[in-house]
């Protein structure tokens, strides 16, 4: 790898731009494929470029054999994202745990007393109302949304927005009883049964979690299961 | 889906830091896996000339051998392909006892 290429890859990652580093395994030459451009040692035939972009869309690194030449494609998509509604005690555990697991975490809470840097060191805080915040953050299929406030005024608008997005995980804190009431409220806002069924509630895997940190573990575990495809799923 | 790009960022940051310090660096990348392998395709490790490591390409099974080859790559400037697996006697020596097979691409930063 040329040093210039190392810097180009780091720039793309720092700017959170999707990219793929393509290595010609015969020569060791490399090019970096961006969403709208290519830079590096070699250009691409359309057919090969399309195969690279297909891997980028699938979020999957791998080798392409193209006319007897092997090209290794290192997909460098931006980090997964987690949007937490509610700068509450569980969020104080979940945010750093998810950051450690590779997520870009944003904690949303308009209540200034909760969303403070002292409570959430080095975590992005957003003081907007949850529906405005989610409209701006635009969850995609690599985003998880978790509501933790227990307050329908904050949680419900966030859930409605999240369900209108392709987020891979939508979870809501609250007991079965709370969740049943939530279903009735959201139905009045036009959320149908199929959409509501996407919400993981009560949130998290049932591991008997008691403390905020344990509940955070159960949520992160359930997010991982949603992302990776379930028990003992074969990934390769 | 993969979250390995967060790991990659850390690995490349370490590589950049070592280069800044005037040290030689090589990057190792898992490019193929068969069976149960501890790290997915795309996992990376940076190595410097002193043997310092950032990231991983297995659960510690083959890192020692990779560091050795990475240091050779820094000296001769050539990339190389390494295979480790249960069918490979050398893999037992370096300890890939997890039953999988992996191919690792090692390239010097030039």
Explain this structure.
The complex is a heterodimer of chains A (about 240) and B (about 110). Chain A contains eight helices and eleven strands. Chain A folds into two domains: about 5-75, no CATH class; about 80-230, Rossmann fold (3-Layer(aba) Sandwich), CATH 3.40.50. Chain A has about 240 residues and is α/β, with parallel strands linked by helices. Chain A has helices at about 5-15, 45-60, 90-100, 130-135, 150-165, 175-190, 195, 210-230, and strands at about 20-25, 30-35, 40, 60-65, 70-75, 80-85, 105-110, 125, 145, 170, 200. In chain A, helix 3 (about 90-100) packs across helix 8 (about 210-230). The mean pLDDT of chain A is about 95. Chain A has a six-stranded parallel β-sheet with strand order 8-7-6-9-10-11, sandwiched between helices. Helix content of chain A is about 40%, strand content about 20%. With about 110 residues, chain B is α+β, with helices and mostly antiparallel strands. Chain B has one domain (about 5-110). Chain B has three helices and five strands, in the order H-E-E-E-H-E-H-E. Chain B has helices at about 5-20, 65-75, 90-95; strands at about 25-35, 45-50, 55, 80-85, 100-110. A five-stranded antiparallel β-sheet of chain B has the order 3-2-1-5-4. In chain B, strand 2 (about 45-50) and strand 3 (about 55) form a beta hairpin. The longest helix of chain B is centred in the first third of the chain and has 17 residues, at about 5-20. Chain B is globular. Chains A and B meet through helix 1 and strand 5 of A and helix 1, strand 1 and strand 5 of B.
In short:
The complex is a heterodimer of chains A (236) and B (110). Chain A is of the alpha/beta class and 236 residues long.
């Amino acid at each position: 790898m040329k040093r210039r290429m190392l810097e180009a890859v780091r720039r793309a990652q720092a700017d959170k731009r999707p990219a793929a580093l393509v290595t010609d395994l015969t020569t060791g030459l490399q090019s970096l494929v961006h969403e709208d451009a290519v830079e590096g040692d070699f250009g691409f035939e359309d057919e090969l470029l399309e195969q690279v972009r297909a891997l980028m869309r699938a979020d999957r690194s791998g080798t392409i054999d193209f006319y007897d030449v092997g090209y290794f494609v290192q997909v460098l998509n931006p980090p997964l994202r987690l949007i937490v509604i509610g700068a509450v005690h569980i969020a104080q555990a979940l945010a750093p745990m998810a950051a450690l697991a590779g997520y870009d975490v944003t904690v949303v809470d308009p209540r200034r007393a909760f969303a403070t840097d002292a409570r959430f060191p080095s975590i992005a805080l957003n003081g907007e109302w949850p529906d405005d915040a989610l409209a701006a953050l635009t969850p995609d299929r690599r985003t998880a949304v978790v509501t933790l406030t227990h307050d329908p005024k904050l949680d419900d608008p966030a859930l409605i927005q999240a369900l209108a997005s392709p987020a891979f995980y939508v979870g809501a804190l609250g007991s079965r009883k709370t969740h049943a009431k939530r279903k009735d409220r959201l139905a009045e806002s036009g959320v149908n049964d199929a959409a509501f069924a996407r919400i993981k509630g009560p949130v998290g895997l049932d591991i008997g979690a008691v403390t905020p940190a344990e509940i955070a573990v159960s949520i992160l575990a359930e997010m991982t299961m949603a992302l990776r495809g379930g028990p003992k799923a074969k990934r390769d | 889906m993969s979250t390995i790009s967060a790991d990659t960022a850390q690995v490349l940051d370490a590589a950049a830091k070592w280069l800044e310090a005037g040290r030689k660096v090589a990057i190792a990348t898992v490019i193929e896996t068969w069976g149960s392998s501890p790290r997915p395709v795309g996992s990376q490790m940076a190595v410097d000339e002193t043997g310092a490591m950032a990231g991983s390409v297995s659960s510690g099974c083959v890192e020692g051998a990779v560091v050795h080859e990475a240091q050779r790559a820094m000296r001769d400037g050539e990339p190389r392909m390494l295979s480790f697996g249960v069918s490979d006697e050398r893999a037992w020596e370096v300890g890939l006892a997890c039953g999988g097979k992996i191919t690792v691409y090692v390239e010097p930063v030039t």
